[in-house]
Amino acid sequence: MLRGSAGRLMAAKQEAVDFSGDMDRQERIKAMAARIRAEAKAKTTGHRPSAAPEVAKAQDRMPSTRPGRVEVVDPRKEEDASQKLESMLPVMEQKVTAAEDEADKVSILAAPLSMDTSEELRSLQTSAIRDTERAVKAALGAISLARREVDRRMKESESFPTLVKESAKEEIAKLTERLDAAQSKVEEHRNVRRDHEQALAAEKLFGDLASRLGGAELDCEKAAMMAEPLAKVLSTDPENVNAAELREAKEALRLAQATLAPTSRLIAVKVEGLKGSVKKRMQELQERAEASQAILDKAKQTVDEAQSRAATSPILAQALERLEKVEEVLQEMREAEAPFLMGIEVMPAGDTSEVLQKMDRTAAVAQAALADAHKFIALKLVEVGRLAAGAATSARRELEKVQQQVDAGFEKVKAFQDESAKRKRQNLVVIVKEKIEEAEAAVQRLKEAGADLPSLDASTLPEALERALAAELEAQNLVTVARRELQERLQELKSTEGASQDAAQNSDMLRTKVRVSYMEAELGKFRKTARSYEERIKVGRSLTETLNLLKDAEAEVERLAEASEAWPKDERAPEDAEKGIASVQAKLGNATVQVEMKLQTAQGLELKELRTIFARLQRAQGRLDSVKELVRQRNRAASSQILQVANAAMKKAEAAVAEVTGAAAAPDAPAEQLEELSRRAKEALTYIAAAQRELSKGLGEQLVLESKAEFARLQLRCKALDRKGRAASERLAARFEKIASEAEQAALEALRMAARKDDDTYDAVELFNRLSKGGSDISAAQFCEFVTQATPPLSPEQGRAAFKRIALQGLTQKRFSAALADFRRVVRDIVLTDIFEIQSAKRVCRLAPGDLLEAIGATKTDDGLGLQRMRCRLVRDGVCGWVTVGSAGGTAFLERASQPHLWCSQPTALREGTDAASAVVQQLQAGEVLELLQGPIEERMGSDSRVRGVACHEEAVGWLQVRDKGGAVLAELREHVYRCNEAIAMTDVADFANCNMVRRIDAGEALELIPSEKEVSPAEGGARRKFRACRDGREGWITTRGSQGTAYVRPAPKHYICLQAAPMHTGLGAESAVVRVLMPGEAFNAFEEPRDVSGGECITMYRARAVRGGAEGWVTTTTAQEVQPWTSRFVVSQAVPLTSALSTNEAVEPFEVYRMLETGELLDLQQQPVEDLTSGSLRARAVATSDALAGWVTVREASGHLQIRPATAEDEAAAAAARGAAAPTTPTRSGGRSEWQVKEELHEHGGKGAKGRGKGKSKKGKGKW
Question: Is residue 136 over pLDDT 90?
């Protein structure tokens, strides 16, 4: 019903508006047209006629033209413009009126929205919103259309005459104002839906805001009530504000403000944009909130006043504490001045300085305390200014009083400092006077010391002058200190505040300056006197040094002259005499040089003394020249004696070499003759060596010049004779060695044939017993008797030669058995077979060149193949079999070899087995020799084991050490190892409903299955197993197969689990670097099987028989080379004598020492070392390679020290280089010849010098060698 009544009301209003609008519009148009015609007519006639009031007003608004200027207007044109305007106005009026009608329609339709919202009006207001929105849209369109029409007509009116244009602008402006008013009406309802929604929201929020505001009002009233007691206290007793009440009031204010502030802000925000009754109700809430805020502000002012009163109390207390501290330091400052107030007029300068320093310190402390108090009060005045007005006024008054007292303290300190400065000036004068007095006393002592110098002699003058100079230095230091003290104190006096010094102080300072100047003048006088005495002493010391040098030289010349009278006439002068002559000559030369240099500038007494010294030098030089001449005579005689002895030795050696060379020319000399010739050749070499030793004495001696040429010729003869003798000795030795070797081999073959049994084995014991006829050894006669009757027979000479080679020290059973042993060395690749017949034989092993074989049977010939074969034992590993010795075509596969032996370089053990824990058979000493029975057998020891793969955690590739050198297992191969395919969770139990996550298992991580826990199938599907994480050892349940069949883990074969920290290397070598270290529990995926590390320690084992004692066992050698293969070439490691007999005890057997073998000399041992029972040393028969001298040499002393050792390639190269080095043809100057000897000899043998290779000329006293 309401909606219908409203519709009828709007329709009636619209009709009324339309009717009244039409009438008014027609009237306005007619009035406007009349006014326009009137204006145009007035313009034409030039005067203003009486017209309608509108026309008159329009003329009044027109601008008046300037006098004298009349605008000429075309009446016709103006009339046309008026007609156009008259036709334009109705159109514009119509459009503007339509726009206003639309705007009024909007206001009418929006009228229901201004009423309060209720359930009955909700549908009406909703319909009004829709109608209003459509009306707004239509109104905006009409207004826009009218504006465009007005703007277009405005542009057209720009071309009208001025009067018509002004009229048009006025009318258009009115229409524009109407459009703006209509626009405002429409804009008010443009957001009608949003405004209505805001009103609805504000209506809903109103109750909440009212409730919150009510609570805030209660809190504000509570805060105001709690602030009332504080207001009463402030009015009665402001100083006794209760702190608890103050805190409670502040807390109540805080709570009230915290409740009221957000409520007020929310109300203010919601008021904006509201319209109608809701806005009025919201404004009422806003006024209530402002009233509560005013109550709260008043209470806060009261609390702030009380808080200010409470805050001033500690400030005043602190200010009073600072004032008390200031009083204390001022009292200390006054007490520091007490020593000056005791009536003591004169105080020591040091005590005065200490008191003044104490006064300065106390004044500085007081100044600092006052400054601190002043600063504190100033800051607190600023703080008090921020407090409430009432509390600030009383506190400021108290603080100003304290400040006045502090200012008074400043004045006291300033007065105290002025007094201290005055006392300091007085003390400075006293200190300077004391320094001056000390310096004057030192200067007086200096004058007394200088007064005694003229009366002293030359012996006591230096000491007295030294004492005077010490006194001068002391005085100089004191005067310098006094001058410095005076200058410093003057500067202090000038810089002292209030430095108005009195006349007495100025006069004292002037007198002090004069006294210092006087002392400096006295010091200058003494310096001049001291310099003159120093020059005198310096000259005396210079001459004294020269005289002392001359006295020493004269005393040594006299001693040499007396000693020369006792020198033998046919011997060289003693070496110390020649050194003494050189020393005296050097002293005389130095003294002469010093005198000559001083003579160039000497004058007076110094010149006379120098001439006397020079005359003494000449006399001493003459006496020394006579001693030199005597030395030269003795040297000539000694040089002649050396040449005679060397010449005799050379003739004897030449005769021996000539005899041997002639006898060696016989081509068919028998073995015994060749042996004798070889012995005589070696004897000739000993003569040559003796001649060389005599010549070597000449190299060490100081030969005179005329003996040097003869000595050089003897050296050349000795070298040529040595080469000739060695060549003859080598030829004879080679011929004898060939004959003796052939005889030895023939004898051994005969012995082996005799010792061979039916089974082709040797019975050396039975043959030895038969030949020795039951004795302990076989004699030479028995041996020769057997070989001369053998087939083929040997001559007696050949038998004796073979016996000497086989049994150098007697043919015992042990030596006999060793001699019968037949060893061969493989020279070509060949195969060792199990039987003699090659066609049906099987290969035992393959033999390589260098392998040693021991023949254990006679040589047999395979007639079908034409091969010679022999049954042998391979020394390397002890296997036996048949081997081909030679082919029918003459190809040899084996060659004869000596029995292999071993040599101990250091003490070691002979054990029953190869294991280090086996029993010791015999303890071997250094130098002992062993017979090799089997070996060498090499074995790698102490190598660790590694496997190549990748670490499961970090994907690092390398070689993991799974076993160390000691055999400890670092990582072991596990079967139940799995690898995670995708990231998954590890839980504490298998049930999903009750489990907790232990940790996340990453993809690629290794897991170890726990077999004791069976597989579980959850209700959700899939399968779960219990694992142990290899990374950290944590255990838990993991889903192995998902509910959809996804496999989260897979078996990982060849996975190692680290039992302890295990390094992972870059390679298999022992020196390879470590990539990382895997911790216990980590997993490692292996690519292959483990392998041993290359580069482990290698040991070599031999089975051998000890020559001393005959015990058999195993010896082991490491990189230290405890046991080495035997070689006959040895080198001397320490000088050792070469003797004629085995024993070194003369009580048992006399022996002769041929010569000393030098370090580095090579020896050829003729047999294995044997023990000297008389001394406990180990000795061997050897031949020196340098001179072919044979004899016995000590291999090891009884103490165990080795004298010789097996020679290396480096040792042989060094010995060859030493033999090839040419000896000097003239004596070198390294023998210690004095320069004066060379000079005198050259001077003696010619004035111009002998012609030779040098080009220099010889002059007296100077020459070249």
Answer: no
